[in-house]
Design goal:
The chain is an alpha/beta fold. The chain is built from 13 helices and 28 strands. Helices cover 26% and strands 25% of the residues. The strands form 7 sheets. Strands 12, 13, 14, 15, 16, 17 and 28 form a 7-stranded mixed β-sheet that branches.
Length: 526
């Protein structure tokens, strides 16, 4: 295998101390070590280097950022005189494609290396703030969902956090702050500003017209990107937050084909993202689509930051977001007591406490089961008489048999209490008319979906609920694809599409199948 890899690059002899690449660079080369030793290291704020792993003969450098054009997280240097094979980025992509058995080893190593960086906090940033407050949680959620290594210092619990603030000349008024290598201090940055500062965003060439732009990186969008890129289409994915969409917030998906023990939504999205990048798709993260201009020879996706991306075809896969409860002070407690995801991050906030899950669908059932492992008790509130009509049977049976979950039917939240953060909740039982107030500081709201289609409103007519109609042309006749809109070259898949089945598997299926229609549009039969 080493001989086969060597055929894609050139052999070099590096003197001891030679720097191969450093944190913050983009598009670095891939190195196979033939003899000697390459140290991987990170530099602290004082400039001191810490070696955390070593590559020797027949081992190789790199991790997931070698598949994209983001800034790399760590540095590498020759520890002694070292003989290597240097493979430029373009030839590395050719290697991964042309040598599938070697590519599989490299991809698996890259994924596990990123997991290791996250687990041990290497090559990342430090987030300092109050752990239960909205802005701290927003930044933490962004880092977690984008698989960016980081450490959390809660100023209310960790003495080290207070020392760190003093060391950087910061006060509580500056919180939350993100401290990056090189003593860069970001005071409560927006998600877009944080992505830019960390090199997560990639420069977009406004003169480059993509074959297809996929808007949204949920299961449907990622599937479309994988199939489009693997079939040779120049593909870009535009995502406002992080890969995974609504499914990415699920703690475990157990009824997805091929995963008998289940898989978290974030893990599924992470694998799909790597898969799409392996085939050459570009991902523009933290770039929200604000408008679609469909009046020219090519579509133009206008972004919130004023930039734009031209494409010959567009696949709308922006999904849906959870509805909100109509309650006084609801907006005040969003992000600091009210949550729309139940992942390990949120579970840490309420370990050993009682929580409320509102909703009767599968997402609510999965959240209740996941949280019941670590919280004192889960109160599952639904307005209906039961769960059978809205939730999969396997979840209904698990909830009924769990001593740590209580189902409250015909029950609604009536009031929220607390100053800065949520401290107690009042709900009312519709059957008895009795109200009850309990000291609960975390509510997980999962009560149905509202489509993310505002960016499409100027290009086509949406249905009365805001979803995208598909399958018919302007004359009212069946379109050539069930995912085609009335605008030629514009398609919709997944939860954003009117009449779609709101399941991860169906979204993946639609995303993969729509590429056939895109091909037919871009290359019509003569």
């Amino acid at each position: 295998m080493a001989q086969r890899v060597a055929a894609y690059g050139t052999e070099e002899i590096l003197a001891a101390g030679t720097l191969l690449f450093s944190r913050g660079q983009r598009s670095v080369d891939f190195f196979l070590v033939l003899s000697g030793q390459v140290d991987m290291f990170e530099t602290d704020h004082a400039g001191a280097a810490t070696v955390f792993t070593v590559h020797t003969a027949r081992q190789f450098t790199g991790e997931l950022d070698l598949l994209n054009d983001r800034e790399i997280l760590v540095s590498g240097r020759a520890a002694v005189e070292t003989r290597v094979v240097r493979i430029p980025r373009s030839d590395f992509r050719r290697l991964v494609t042309a040598e599938p058995d070697i590519g599989e080893i490299i991809m698996r190593a890259f994924i596990l290396r990123r997991v290791g960086l996250i687990r041990h906090g290497r090559g990342g940033v430090v987030l300092i703030g109050l752990g239960h407050y909205r802005e701290t949680l927003r930044l933490e959620r962004f880092l977690v969902r984008n698989a960016y290594p980081h450490r959390i210092l809660d100023i209310a619990l960790d003495p080290e956090a207070r020392h760190a603030l003093q060391g950087f000349g910061l006060t509580a008024a500056d919180l939350p702050v993100v401290i990056a290598p090189g003593e860069a201090v970001l005071r409560n940055p927006s998600n877009a500003a944080l992505a830019d500062a960390l090199g997560l965003t990639e420069a977009l060439d406004p003169g480059r017209i993509y074959d297809v732009a996929v808007i949204g990186a949920g299961p449907a969008g990622l599937a479309a990107a994988v199939y489009a890129a693997s079939e040779g289409l120049d593909t870009i994915v535009i995502e406002g937050m992080a890969p995974g969409g609504q499914a990415g917030t699920s703690s475990k998906i157990e009824n997805y084909l091929g995963f008998p023990t289940g898989i978290s939504g974030q893990a599924l999205a992470g694998r799909a993202q790597v898969q799409a990048q392996k085939f050459g798709a570009r991902l523009a993260i933290s770039r929200m689509a604000a408008q679609l201009d469909c009046g020219g020879s090519a579509f133009r996706v206008v972004l919130e930051d004023g930039g734009s991306v031209p494409a010959r075809a567009v696949i709308a896969a922006t999904g849906a977001r959870y509805r909100r409860l109509d309650l006084p002070r609801y907006a005040h407690f969003e992000g600091q007591g009210i949550h729309y995801a139940a992942t390990a991050m949120e579970a840490q906030l309420c370990t050993g406490a009682e929580v409320i899950v509102v909703g009767g669908g599968n997402s609510a059932g999965q959240a209740a089961m996941f949280l019941s492992r670590t919280v004192a008790h889960v109160h599952l509130l639904v307005r209906a008489d039961g769960l059978a009509a809205t939730m999969s049977d396997y979840l209904v049976r698990r909830i009924a048999s769990s001593p740590r979950i209580t189902l409250h039917t015909r029950t609604e939240i009536e009031a929220l209490h607390g100053d800065d953060t949520l401290t107690s909740v009042t709900w009312r039982d519709g059957s008895t008319g009795l109200g009850e107030t309990r000291p609960i500081g975390n509510i997980f709201v999962m009560i149905g979906a509202v489509p993310n289609t505002g960016w499409l409103a100027e290009c086509l007519t949406l249905d009365p609920k805001g979803f995208v109609p598909t399958g018919m042309n302007r004359d009212g006749l069946p379109a050539t694809s069930p995912y085609a809109t009335v605008v030629p070259g514009l398609y919709a898949v997944g939860d954003v599409r009117a009449g779609s089945v709101k399941r991860v598997a169906s979204g993946v299926g639609e995303g993969s199948v729509v590429v056939q229609a895109v091909h037919a549009f871009l290359h019509p039969d003569p």
